[in-house]
Design brief:
This protein has 538 residues and is mainly β. It has 4 domains: 269 residues, 6 Propeller (Neuraminidase), CATH 2.120.10.30; 81 residues, Immunoglobulin-like, CATH 2.60.40; 81 residues, Immunoglobulin-like, CATH 2.60.40; 69 residues. Helices cover 0% and strands 51% of the residues.
C-alpha cells in the first residue's frame, strides 16, 4: 500500500481596512486677549501654558492653563512662528531677522538655526518632531522649501517651486505625526502634501466651500490630533476645516467669520494643547479662541489677573468635556487641600494668607494629569486714612502735600486739576519754588490690582507779591496831622502801620489802591515821634 503525504497550503490574505476618523465634537470655551494686539501663532507646553506671538508688538505673551497672563517677553524683531518641544525648549522665528532662535524653558538662549540672522527668507511656521526635541521643520515660504534642522545644523530640505507632487507654492503650516509623517499646507496650490523622510507620499485638496465659496482662503496653520484628524486654519474664510489625515475626506468645519464670541477673523496660528483644547490665534479679533475637542479639560480662574481683593471669594474651576470619568484633588503650593475634590475650588472670604500657587490633579481613565500653576495674590483694597490739606504760600515757597493710606502693594498717582502729574507717584508731593501757575486743586489716586481710592482734592494757592510798594513822601500838615504819599501795585490789599518803639505796631489803615495814594494819620498829633511801615496782605 502506498502512503501519501498530503500537504495542505493555507494562504493568509492581509486585508487593510481604512477606518475614517469621526467628526470632532466641538465646544466653545471663550477667549484670551490680555496684552494681545495681533496674535499670529500659538504653541503649548506640557503643562498647558500657551505661548502667543504678536509680531506688531514685538512680543511673546504667555498664559497659563487657567487663562492668566503669566509673562510677557518683549524686544523681538517680528516674532512669528513658535513651537515648544517635549523637553520644554522654545523655538521662535523672527520674520524681520529671517532667523529661528532656540531657548530653554526659562528663556535662556541656547542657539540659533544655521547662520542665525538671514538664514531664512521668511520662517513662517515651525514643527518639532515629537520623538526628537532637537529635530525641527521650518517652512521657508518664499523659498518654497521645508528645511530640516537637527540642533543648529541643517540636515535636509524638501520641496521647491511648482505645482507637481512634492513641490510648493508658498508652504505654510506644518505638523509631524507620531508615525513620522510630515504634513505641509501648500498654500497657493490649495492642498496638503504628506512626506515621509522628506519623500512625497500623498496629498489631498483643501477643497472649496465655506461661506464665500470657491477655493480655500489662504490656509495657514495645521494641527493633527491623535484621532487621525487634520485641522487647517482658513484665514480668509474665518474658519477651521477638518479632514481625515489619511484619506483627506472632509469631516466638517468649526468657527465662523466674525467678531462675536467664538468667531474667527483672520485665524493664523493654532495648537491643540495637552488638555485637548484647540487654541486659535484670531489676529483681527486680537484674541485666542479656545475650543474643546471631544474629551477635553478646560481651566478657568475667577481671578483672571491672579489678584483677589481680601474678603472676596476665590473660584477656580475645571470643565470636563466628553465621557471620561474624572476625579479632582486641588493643591496649594504643592500640598493637597483637605476636602477640595470637586471640579470647582471655592475659597470664601479670602484673607492675605490665602495667597499662593494653586493647581489641580485630575484622575481620569487615561491616568493622572496635573494642571499648570495658577498664582493667586490676595490684596487688601486701598483705603484713604488722611487727605491732603489746603495750603497757601508765597511764590517761590515750597508746598508739601501728603496722603496716608492703607492697603497692599499701593501705587500713588497725583493729579492737578483732574489730570495726572507726570512722575508724581509717591505718597508725598513736594513742589519747590512754587509759582502762581501751580495754584489749583491737588488729589491723589491710590490703587493696587484690586481697587482704587481717590482723595478729596486739596486747594493750593500760590500768591505773587506786588512788585511796586513805595513810600514816596511824608509831611506834617498845618493842623499837625501827618500825610504820606505811596505808590503801590493795583490788585492787592495793603496795611499802613505805625509805632513809637519798633516793638508794638498799630494799624493806621487798611486799603486797596490803584497806583498813587495819599493817606493822613489823624492820630499822629498824639505822639511826639512816630514811625511807619507799609505791608501787603495776601
Amino acid at each position: 500500500m502506498k502512503s501519501f503525504a498530503v500537504h495542505i497550503g493555507i494562504i493568509f490574505v492581509a486585508v487593510s481596512l481604512v477606518v475614517q476618523a469621526a467628526a470632532p465634537n466641538i465646544a466653545s470655551l471663550g477667549a484670551l486677549s490680555q496684552s494681545l494686539r495681533g496674535p499670529a501663532r500659538v504653541a503649548a507646553d506640557a503643562a498647558g501654558n500657551l505661548y502667543v506671538t504678536d509680531p506688531a508688538a514685538g512680543r511673546v505673551v504667555v498664559f497659563n492653563a487657567f487663562g492668566q497672563q503669566v509673562a510677557v517677553h518683549d524686544g523681538f524683531a517680528g516674532p512669528l512662528a513658535i513651537a515648544i518641544a517635549n523637553d520644554g525648549r522654545i523655538y521662535l522665528s523672527e520674520e524681520k531677522n529671517g532667523s529661528v532662535t532656540v531657548f530653554d524653558a526659562q528663556w535662556n538662549l541656547l542657539y540659533q538655526l544655521g547662520a542665525g540672522t538671514g538664514e531664512f527668507r521668511l520662517p513662517s511656521h515651525l514643527a518639532v518632531d515629537p520623538a526628537s526635541p532637537q529635530l525641527v521643520y521650518v517652512s521657508d515660504s518664499p523659498a518654497n522649501l521645508v528645511r530640516v534642522y537637527d540642533g543648529a545644523t541643517q540636515v535636509g530640505q524638501f520641496g521647491g517651486a511648482g505645482a507637481g507632487n512634492g513641490r510648493f507654492d508658498f508652504p505654510a503650516g506644518l505638523a509631524v505625526r507620531s508615525n513620522g509623517e510630515v504634513l505641509v499646507v501648500d498654500q497657493n496650490n490649495d492642498r496638503i502634501q504628506v512626506f515621509t523622510n522628506g519623500i512625497y507620499s500623498r496629498q489631498f485638496k483643501l477643497g472649496s466651500g465655506g461661506m464665500f465659496g470657491g477655493p480655500s482662503g489662504r490656509s495657514q496653520a495645521l494641527v493633527v490630533d491623535n484621532a487621525g484628524r487634520v485641522f487647517v486654519a482658513d484665514s480668509f474664510q474665518g474658519q477651521v476645516k477638518v479632514f481625515d489625515a489619511v484619506s483627506g475626506s472632509s469631516l466638517g468645519t468649526l468657527g465662523n467669520f466674525g467678531s462675536d464670541a467664538g468667531d474667527l477673523n483672520l485665524p493664523l496660528g493654532m495648537v491643540l494643547d495637552g488638555f485637548n483644547r484647540l487654541c486659535i490665534a484670531s489676529a483681527n479679533n486680537s484674541r485666542i479662541e479656545l475650543f474643546g475637542v471631544d474629551n477635553f479639560l478646560h481651566f478657568s480662574a475667577h481671578a483672571a489677573n491672579g489678584n483677589v481683593a481680601a474678603g472676596n471669594n476665590l473660584v477656580i474651576s475645571v470643565t470636563v468635556g466628553g465621557t471620561n470619568q474624572t476625579g479632582f484633588q486641588w493643591q496649594k503650593d504643592g500640598a493637597n487641600l483637605d476636602g477640595a475634590t470637586n471640579a470647582n475650588l471655592i475659597v470664601p472670604s479670602t484673607a492675605l494668607s490665602d495667597s499662593g500657587n494653586y493647581s489641580v490633579v485630575i484622575n481620569g481613565s487615561s491616568g493622572a494629569v496635573t494642571s499648570s500653576v495658577a498664582p493667586v495674590t490676595v490684596l487688601a483694597s486701598p483705603k484713604i486714612l488722611s487727605n491732603p490739606v489746603d495750603q497757601k504760600l508765597l511764590r517761590g515757597g515750597t508746598a508739601n502735600l501728603a496722603v496716608i493710606a492703607t492697603g497692599s502693594e499701593l501705587k500713588f498717582q497725583w493729579q492737578f486739576n483732574g489730570l495726572d502729574l507726570s512722575g508724581a507717584t509717591n505718597a508725598n508731593l513736594v513742589l519747590a519754588d512754587a509759582q502762581a501757575a501751580q495754584s489749583g486743586r491737588y488729589a491723589v489716586r491710590v490703587s493696587n490690582a484690586v481697587g482704587t481710592a481717590l482723595t478729596t482734592p486739596a486747594s493750593l494757592s500760590v500768591v505773587t507779591p506786588p512788585l511796586v510798594m513805595d513810600m514816596i513822601s511824608s509831611a506834617a500838615q498845618p493842623d499837625q496831622t501827618f500825610n504820606l504819599t505811596m505808590n503801590v501795585d493795583p490788585g492787592f490789599n495793603y496795611e499802613l502801620q505805625a509805632t513809637t518803639d519798633f516793638i508794638q505796631w498799630q494799624t493806621v489803615t487798611k486799603f486797596a489802591a490803584d497806583g498813587m495814594v495819599d493817606l493822613t494819620d489823624a492820630d499822629s498829633t498824639n505822639f511826639p515821634t512816630r514811625f511807619y511801615r507799609l505791608s501787603w496782605t495776601p
